[in-house]
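Model: You mentioned two targets. I'll fold them one after the other.
Researcher: Yes, keep them separate.
Model: Target one:
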Amino acid sequence: MVLSQDEIIQIITLVVDWHFPVVQVAAMYQITTERVYQLVQAYRKTGLYPAPKRLGRPPIIPSPEHRSLIIAEKHRLGVGSRCLHKYFRSRLGIVIGERAIHRVLLEENLTSHEPQKGFRHPAWIRYERDESLSAVHMDWHQSKYNGKQVCVVLDDASRMILAGGEFDRATTEFSIQVLREAYEKYEYIVPIREVITDHGTQFYANTRDSQGNAEHAFEKFCREMEINHILARVKHPQTNGKVESGLERTNSSDRNIRRLRSLFIGTMRSGRIKVSVMKMEI
């Protein structure tokens, strides 16, 4: 917690003038007793109230030589702070931070402030369901164990693999087959309402007409089963990250692969192995 100047004065006054217990003062301002002792000791040593601490590292101020070099190379090369930073490091062996270079250029009116470059993107949408079977994730992954393509249906709320299997190829037909198995297996509890996938050709037709329509077997199956198909953002696997992370972690070591395969039960059916329900540790 960062204390303001008024709070620092109040803390020192309570301890020094009013003789409040240090433990009580620390609890009042939600700080440690060590911090209270530190403030009181600094006040008694100097007779002045300590100034509040400034968050973050202090700004790096380039030396006069580096400042002159930045200005000269800016005029000569006519590039921005990022290119100047790389040029100094690779050609001259001098390391000057991009922000320090940009600050010098701003002070010399050799560049302008661009607010859009400092824009912080909003937080990504995180799909977090409270009820099982309200949404499931689907994805394909190549097994490190035998090179086969693995497809799983993972429940969003419980992280349980509802269905899945190993195939020679990643196709739309096998995707429908795995999703159908999960749907029929747990339909007696509650039908699956949403499925979250990426833009893979197994789930989505990337070639569409001018109205954005296309005939794709997986999308048609979702409409027939009244399942809402949610697509992850392009080049943003975090949207479907629960199943992505789980499959990557499973594939990271032979022990995890054997553990996943040990949960595959039954015999080969239609070129795949039936999967039991398991909890994927993510």
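Model: Target two:
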Amino acid sequence: MDFAKAVAIVLVVLYHVGGAGMDRMFPDPDGHASGLWTRLNAALLPMRMPLFFLTAGLLAHRAVRRPWPVVWRGRILVLLWPYLLWSVAFAAIAGFAYRPDDPMGYTINRLQVIPYAGSAYWFLAVLTVFFVAAKVLRRWPLVVLAVTLALAAVAPYLEPLIDRSLPDLTTYAIIRVGRYAFWYFLGCYAYAAVERLARVNPALLERGCSPLSASLSV
């Protein structure tokens, strides 16, 4: 599990470095190095977030059986307050970098999508929702896994059907929930099976996420 956590963290860091820091690492956007980095990031896309949420589910498999008063502070508030704090801070500051012509408009837009997990720290809000759902639904693990697997399969086709009155970032957050819920619940409810697989060959855990995630995202 430690290996999976480390790989998930490294992949997420590589993604953000490759996006926000591309112009600093590779001044020539059309150069061979920048093209290679872009292709590498794209190749890792099917593995990155599924592995992250699978690992998070593995870490939550015992906590979902604890009483609500115990997990309220240790599993829910511990995710919610950083999400709110850093989302507001990002909204207040980032507009000057990303929208220098209208920083206030950018800030207002970012504040509006915070309740819908539309901020840059969306994963903290989604982890909270997944944990609460996993605890409430833990008596029906097979049903939850079947439903979320089906949801992951249709998630790429849901975006055109979602009400267009929602902000774009909110729509994106809903699609993310559909794509990644299965991986979290798989780790949470099928902990023993995933652990056995990881013990046989830890690399199978990473390689296994990639093709299945890619097939669900087509």
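Researcher: Noted. Anything on target two?
Model: Residues 2-216 form one domain.
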